[in-house]
Specification:
It contains 4 helices and no strands. 1% of the residues are buried. Helices cover 56% and strands 0% of the residues. It is an all-alpha fold and 154 residues long. The protein folds into 2 domains: 79 residues, no CATH class; 40 residues, no CATH class. The longest helix is centred in the middle third of the chain and has 32 residues. The protein is elongated and about 60 Å long.
Length: 154
Amino acid sequence: MKSILIVAFLSFIMLFAGTAQAEKKAPTCGKGKPTASKTVSRHRGSMHARTPFGLKLTEEQKAKIKKIMEDAKKKIMEEVLTDDQRKQLADGKKRMVEGKKKMEDRKAEFMKKFDTNKDGKLDDAEKKAIRESFKKRHAEGKRPKGRNSKRKGK
């Protein structure tokens, strides 16, 4: 546990170590005042999402941070989680990938059915056809098949 705290502390220090080399100007909200948000970018999982106030990190700094994060993740997986927890995590990742695939398949099927001009986008006429289709199904008492359609009593 102590080693995890040390790794977390070191990663925090490394994140802010480049402030001397970073651009001094903080992002503003257009009125010359610094923004209240901690991050400039909203890209999940990217280095930018973890870079407060738009720091301009060098590639070397980014590589160091990435290595620290990977080492911390590996250490957590090996030393903190039990075998059951690791299996649970792997199963959860597998279900997430399967769910994403199902969603992509359903979207492709939906677009195949309603995208009449095959441009990959729904125009106003196609959206109107979708609304009409949904109204018709609702009037007939048919519900779309979703994750709640398998509940008892339905």
